[in-house]
């Protein structure tokens, strides 16, 4: 526990240099490679469930983790205490070479299993969209982790590409190396040697975080030497803070501001964390329109749209399909778990992923100040600075 965290610290910095937990690696430093992946667990009071999400520690502000539990690769197992089944299987399936990316793959798989103990192969592959490996070619990693998937009988068999006996398949048991034939092992590993995965044996969410109902609702202020971190508890409080600090920056997933601070040496003296304000985290269907709060994460929007598409008796047409298609290719799972829809819009980037879909669907941006304002998205794209008025912020989006 850090009583007065520095608002400029990232979670990765705190883990490695303050707690000396060096299993979590730093590689790209901008949330693109997944080497720094950890699990963030939060208690959702609205559903009464624990929300487990893989996140990039390199761009996660330490202050944003208040009230949540963070689990690193050291926390799930070690050689001394005993390996977790995820760690064991990536090792025994030869899924690691230099090992720098391994903790990230381990934690992405662990996060997936915490949410779904028997994932499909497609769900497993989607979970690794934000993890990169330059050594293995991914096959051995995938083969080892496929043993967790419900529809896969673990074959663990590779293929030589036609270099087997008499130019045939390596499944014949030989490889043709020109002058001699060498007998091959027919498997990469023996799945029967793996520990059985038991979800009940995983780390329990801390009861003190679950029982303390004030953690999410309380307002917070963390003061550093150059930066002040503010966490309002309501939209009204947020608007008042914006009026008092017109040049302050709102922070959600920190996927954009974090890059500006780290690589462009930008300094923002006042940061306002908005991802736990109830009014900004709601998704609703109103009069055949989808109303999306500005602090809704992309992964939550993706799940909501999938459920809406599969459970609703009425068709919402191509807009929903286009939105789901774009979200599938939007960054990696770790980024989608924290990035917000407002963050993607407010940057006014000409290469924004979602804005073309939202524009085509006739989306409307509702800007909130102490007076309020509504803006059509097509006009915002022509004059993006309209969204940067003092005292105003994106409150929600209405998708027709």
Automatic annotation (TrEMBL):
Signal peptide: none
GO molecular function, one term: FAD binding
Record's keyword terms, sorted: 2Fe-2S, FAD, Flavoprotein, Iron, Iron-sulfur, Metal-binding, NAD, Oxidoreductase, Peroxisome
Reaction(s) the record says it catalyses: hypoxanthine + NAD(+) + H2O = xanthine + NADH + H(+); xanthine + NAD(+) + H2O = urate + NADH + H(+)
EC numbers on record: 1.17.1.4
Family label: Belongs to the xanthine dehydrogenase family.
The protein's name: xanthine dehydrogenase
Organism listed in the record: Orchesella cincta
């Amino acid at each position: 526990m850090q009583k007065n965290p520095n608002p400029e610290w990232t979670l990765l910095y705190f883990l490695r240099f303050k707690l000396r937990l060096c299993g979590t690696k730093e590689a790209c430093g901008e949330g693109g490679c997944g080497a720094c992946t950890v699990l963030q667990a939060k208690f959702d009071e609205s559903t009464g469930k624990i929300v487990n999400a893989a996140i990039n520690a390199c761009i996660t502000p330490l202050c944003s983790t208040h009230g949540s539990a963070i689990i690193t690769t050291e926390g799930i197992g070690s050689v001394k205490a005993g390996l977790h089944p995820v760690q064991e299987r990536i090792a025994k399936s030869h899924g690691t070479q230099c090992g720098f990316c391994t903790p990230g793959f381990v934690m992405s798989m662990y996060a997936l299993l915490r949410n779904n103990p028997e994932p499909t192969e497609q769900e497993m592959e989607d979970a690794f969209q934000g993890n990169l490996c330059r050594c293995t070619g991914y096959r051995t990693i995938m083969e080892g982790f496929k043993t967790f998937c419900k529809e896969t009988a673990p074959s663990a068999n590779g293929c030589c590409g036609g270099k087997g006996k008499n130019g045939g398949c390596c499944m014949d048991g030989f490889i043709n190396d020109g002058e001699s034939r060498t007998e091959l092992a027919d498997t990469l590993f023996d799945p029967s040697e793996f520990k059985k995965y038991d979800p009940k044996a995983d780390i329990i969410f801390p009861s003190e975080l679950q029982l303390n109902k004030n953690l999410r609702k309380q307002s917070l202020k963390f003061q550093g030497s150059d930066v002040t971190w503010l966490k309002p508890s309501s939209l009204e409080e947020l608007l008042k803070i914006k009026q008092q600090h017109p040049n302050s920056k709102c922070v959600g997933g920190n996927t954009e501001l974090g890059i500006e601070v780290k690589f462009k040496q930008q300094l923002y003296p006042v940061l306002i964390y908005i991802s736990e304000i109830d009014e900004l985290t709601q998704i609703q269907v109103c009069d055949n329109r989808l109303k999306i709060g500005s602090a809704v994460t992309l992964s939550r929007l993706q799940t909501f749209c999938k459920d809406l598409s599969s459970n609703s008796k009425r068709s919402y047409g191509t807009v929903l399909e286009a939105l789901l298609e774009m979200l599938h290719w939007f960054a990696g799972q770790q980024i989608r778990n924290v990035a917000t829809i407002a963050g993607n819009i407010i940057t006014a980037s000409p290469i924004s992923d979602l804005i073309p879909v939202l524009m085509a669907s006739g989306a409307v941006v509702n800007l909130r100040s102490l007076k309020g304002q509504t803006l059509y998205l097509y006009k915002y794209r022509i004059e993006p600075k309209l969204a940067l008025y003092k005292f105003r912020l994106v409150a929600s989006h209405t998708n027709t």
